[in-house]
Write a structure and sequence with these properties.
It contains 8 helices and 12 strands. The protein has 355 residues and is an alpha+beta fold. The chain has a single domain, classed as Deoxyribonuclease I, Chain A (4-Layer Sandwich). Strand 6 and strand 7 form a beta hairpin.
């Protein structure tokens, strides 16, 4: 580091600390699994340097406590977890952005995995460069698949573990202009009754510098889902989709309309996928949008006491076709109490019958 810090450097550091969730900033002061994501205030796209300092939330007006009665505010993973088993004849799937497996393993990863006992485990942002041995019991999960970032080591990455072996596996996003760069972002498993897609959608980045790239992804994602739908099987699309679809999906919508994950472009892109492929957000379909449904989020920044204050974003989803939602979805929930091994909490889907 240079001995003298320029005003531009200082401004950029402030922006980085206050921006909602910049997934790919190199920050040597943070341990693997930490994040520069922060629920703060609005930022504008950076077109020229130096970056402008975002407006601060007026002192005294920021959130103090969760808006949901009974919301969990623990900042470490509970040492003992008792989670419901899947009903007889049902399959349980869990999806979790672990924000760095090496860190998550030290903070309760296996406590959650053991307690949930899901039939399928979908992980995102594992940040490792090769498969980790004994992460799960291979006798329980005989099928495993790992996807790694093409050009950046220790970045992104997806993995899936399943108690039943799928018929086929398609790594990456075949409809993307550069499919090779997507293998650390998505995998599609074909089962007898459905296609399961485990996905870590790229976000638009600090200052929305990658918003156009994100829009390319959304178009390619829609095309891939349409191709799968044409094959006549159900669709289950899950993962960190890096979008808050509606204002109810984050604590401070009015101050984040220019923040990655809540721009009108990203929300419209997600709406287009749901509408044109005829899919539904299972959690919102189940919970509704009334006051009683507010305050349920899947991501809380490690910074600024966001977890304790209930300042969160709902970025993690299970999306299905409408027929599956109507006839087979039993439960779609956020495991709010399972926080501490990541800045995200797991989301869970239970469906009737086999995959």
């Amino acid at each position: 580091m240079a001995a003298t810090e320029t005003s531009t450097d200082a401004s950029n550091k402030r922006l980085k600390a206050r921006h909602d969730y910049n997934e790919d900033q190199d920050d040597n002061d943070l341990e693997d699994g930490d994040s520069a994501k922060a629920e703060a205030t609005t930022t504008k796209p950076i077109k020229t340097a130096p970056a402008k300092k975002p407006a601060l939330v007026k002192k005294g007006s920021e959130a103090k406590t969760p808006i949901r009665t009974g919301a969990h505010t623990n900042t470490v993973m509970p040492t003992k977890l008792s989670l419901p088993k899947a009903p007889e004849g049902c399959v349980k799937l869990t999806s979790w952005n672990v924000s760095g497996l090496n860190a998550s393993l030290k903070k309760g990863f296996k406590t959650y995995i053991s307690a949930e006992d899901a039939d399928v485990i979908c992980l995102q942002e594992h940040k490792v460069n090769q498969p980790l041995l004994n992460l799960v019991d291979p006798k329980v999960y005989p099928f495993s698949w790992w996807g790694f970032e093409k050009d950046k080591k220790g970045y992104a990455g997806v993995a899936i573990f399943s108690k039943t072996t799928p018929l086929n596996v398609t790594p990456g996003l075949p409809t993307h202009p550069d499919p090779g760069c997507t293998k650390g972002r998505i995998v599609t498993l074909e089962y007898p009754t459905c296609f399961l897609l485990g996905c870590y959608v790229p976000n638009a980045g600090q200052g929305l510098v990658r918003l156009k790239e994100r829009m390319v992804w959304d178009v390619a994602m829609k095309e891939w889902l349409l191709q799968l739908k044409a094959k006549g099987k159900h669709i289950i699309w899950t993962g960190d989709l890096n979008v808050c679809h509606k204002p109810i999906d984050l604590r401070n919508p009015t101050t984040n309309t220019m923040s990655a994950g809540f721009t009108k472009e990203e929300r419209a892109g997600f709406s287009a996928i749901l509408d044109e492929v005829d899919l539904v957000d299972t959690f919102r379909e189940t919970q509704g949008e009334g006051p009683e449904a507010a305050g349920q989020y899947s991501y809380f920044s490690y910074r600024f006491q966001c977890r304790v204050k209930g300042i969160g974003w709902r970025l993690d989803y299970f999306v299905t076709d409408k027929e599956l939602q109507k006839e087979r979805v039993v439960e779609s929930v956020i495991r709010d109490e399972c926080y501490g091994a990541s800045d995200h909490v797991p989301v869970v889907l239970v469906v009737k019958g086999a995959l």
